[in-house]
């Protein structure tokens, strides 16, 4: 069976196509609201193939200006008793220019570009790294995600503080307008990915920053450094890195609800964290998310989860119409 034949077979198994699933968010039309979060297709190598499993959008990266190996192995740990994963990958990727070459092929799906800084770049120079990635990807992705919330690059989360984050996002928005004029296209949506470990006061700062920099939306949330209420062995739970999966579900939803309510629905939210079932996805959407993303849930439950969520959304749509 040829590659196209296999692609068609996979799509028939997993892709749920229905106009009722379509969503228009930050100026883009999504075939459905279920996406694949960054960290799975770090180097933009499999976005078309992954889209065959039914995703409405695929986020590549996190990409940095220069290739880097990431943290020493072993750096990913599966906590089966908790349906969770701890990773300390450290933005391992082949560099933004290598990704750009692969993004030149035709896209079958909306692509988000998740961008970060190199580990060796000090925070005072971080903006230049983000701008370099932004310029390189501008004509090749549909939206951008600014990642300042990974716990696996030393000092990165310090960029979530109000002053440095505002300066970074303003610089990106200025470049956004410049490049849109240069290429005679619309500006690209820019979203901010935040940590689940922020306090309510910090989340209120995020709302102010989003409004002040006219950001297009927020992704809530990244992985957590918390380790509460886990059932796996201390050998696993004591590993450094970001925790994702089921233990993150409740906190991620809390953050989404807080941002949606305190932000008065002024900006879209992509909900991610602990989605292992259709009910988990519906919970995020009911809390205020416009779209959702999978990562750990996709690892544990497989691609059938994407189909299950989209079918559950259609059932809910039909029930609402009665």
Automatic annotation (TrEMBL):
- Provide the top EC class: oxidoreductase
Q: Which residues form the Dihydroorotate dehydrogenase catalytic domain?
A: 21-313
Q: Does the keyword Signal apply?
A: no
Name the PROSITE patterns for this protein: DHODEHASE_2
Chain residues that bind substrate: 42, 87-91, 147, 152, 222-223
Which is an annotated Pfam family here? Answer: DHO_dh
Please identify the protein, giving its name as recorded. Dihydroorotate dehydrogenase (quinone)
Provenance organism: Muriicola marianensis
Taxonomy-wise, where does this protein's organism fall, top ranks first?
Bacteria, Pseudomonadati, Bacteroidota, Flavobacteriia, Flavobacteriales
Q: Corresponding gene?
A: pyrD
